[in-house]
Amino acid sequence: MKLRVIFDTKHRAAWNMGLDESLLMHLDKIGPTLRFYGWEPPAVSIGYFQSMEEEVDIHKAHEMGVDLVRRITGGGAVYHKYELTYSIVIPPPPGKILSSYRFVERGIVEALKSLGIEAEMSGINDIVVSGRKISGNAQTRKYGGMLQHGTILMDVDVDEMFSLLKVPQEKMRDKIVKSVKERVTSLHHLGVDVEFDELQKIMAEGFGKALDAELYEDELPKEVLSKAKELEVEKYGSREWNFKR
Amino acid sequence: MEAENGISRGKAIVKSGKLIRVDAIFRDGKIEKIKITGDFFLHPEDKIEELENSLEGREITQVKNIAQEVLKDAEYVGISAETIADAVREAWKNRR
Questions:
Q1: Inter-chain contact A98–B39, Cβ cutoff 8 Å?
Q2: Domain topology for B7-93
């Protein structure tokens, strides 16, 4: 498989989600594509099935200048700040959807290995190091294609994250925060400090190896970007979408 | 517990590896409106809206069967017909 790689910069949440969906819509035209990006300003994304009001302290997010967006994919709320995010669009591999999460996740495990980190897949959508989560992933199938996106934590500040995220039982907040602190890790915590741009290259190599893909860089056609712009404004930038559930 | 006009609202949170929240309006013992949210995975995603629509106007005892029918060709993690039925029963108990 030939795999187009886009080494992207940091963007607004609505643009990031708009471009991911546009890539998926144009899979036939652009071919299998892997994109790396970040978030500026920092953002909270919630899963397709989640309610913004239930998950996020919206007032606090506005105060902190944090973007809010609802994803096209399931899973939980994520605070995107100290991380690298990837998205990949490919034709759906045969077999069960849930087992194909791992098809892509192998790329991350491979990349971490090249950084000297022994990671393994856990459940359907997590990658862990010594039992601590370093990467979360989510997938959808639409327009005849498959999109999977996910994060690699470069650093993590659980207190900062929970200043934005609500917890199911406020009485249990301290306990929940403590438990999350015990269950997550990051490259920094593992003693690996690598720049955002350099990590993109390392991750790309990992995906290339795991998916047995030949990587190439090429600009995206204009129509992909204009569709992304349209989705940014009309969908992911809208209250109607973000607060739908 | 129940208002005189037969309308009440109940919420519930059920843990199933992931978290499922149900927020329902009941009228005369039936589900009038329901929202199922959480950090679960369900493919295809729009099955959730189909499920919510299918549950409206139905009795609590029918939830499991309806959910099984709607989810029969779907793939999911952290949600199932059983957990949805549990969550709706819990919401019914919590109604006010």
A1: no
A2: Enolase-like; domain 1 (3.30.390)
**Distance, first Cα to last Cα, chain B:** 5
- Lowest-confidence region among A21-30, A113-122, A168-177: A168-177
**Inter-chain contact A125–B41, Cβ cutoff 8 Å?**
yes
Per the CB < 8 A criterion, the answer to whether A41 and A11 are in contact is no
* Amino acid at the residue A115: L
* Chain A residue with minimum CA distance to B42: A74
Confidence of residue B17 (pLDDT cuts 50, 70, 90): confident
Walk me through the domains of chain A, giving residue ranges and CATH numbers: 2-242 (3.30.930.10)
- Most A CBs within 10 Å, among B36, B37, B52, B94, to test the A interface: B37
Q: Is the peptide bond before B44 cis (omega within 30 degrees of 0)?
A: yes
The tokens describing A64, both together, are 């902190």
Question: Domain coordinates of chain B in residue numbers?
Answer: 7-93
